[in-house]
Amino acid sequence: MSNIKLGEPVLKLVNKVYTPNDMISLKFGRYDLALKTDNQGRGILLFMGRKNDKGDVTGERYARRIAENEEGNLIKDYWEHKGKAT
């Protein structure tokens, strides 16, 4: 996989808590973002690029890795670049 990292301003936006189990459309500078949330409203899948004529975001795809221990304490939380989003 390519090592394209998300910058701090984008991370602030996508690490917020949103409506659970939803696809959220956001704008960041010249980029269109589509963010899929989990049942707690945390972003877990991110498409970053430009919207096409169908409304789908084409560009880069990221997946969030979240790991918690038995008590619910966060162990890992990071975004991983998964490649091109078409």
Overview of this protein structure:
The chain is mainly beta. The protein has one domain (8-85). The chain is built from one helix and five strands. A hairpin with a 5-residue loop joins strand 3 and strand 4 (57-68). The longest helix is centred in the first third of the chain and has 7 residues, at 8-14.
Q: How large is the count of helical segments?
A: 1
Query: What is Rg?
Result: 13 Å
Strand content: over 45%
Question: Whole-Å distance between the termini?
Answer: 16 Å
Order of helices and strands: HEEEEE
Low-confidence stretches: none
> How many domains is the backbone divided into?
1
**Oligomeric form:** single chain
Helix content: under 10%
Keywords:
86 residues, mainly beta, five-stranded antiparallel sheet, 1 helix, 5 strands, globular
Describe the secondary-structure layout:
Layout: H1 8-14, E1 23-28, E2 31-37, E3 43-51, E4 57-68, E5 74-85
Antiparallel strand pairs: 1-2, 2-3, 3-4, 4-5
Can you give me a brief rundown of this structure?
The chain is mostly beta strands. The chain is built from one helix and five strands.
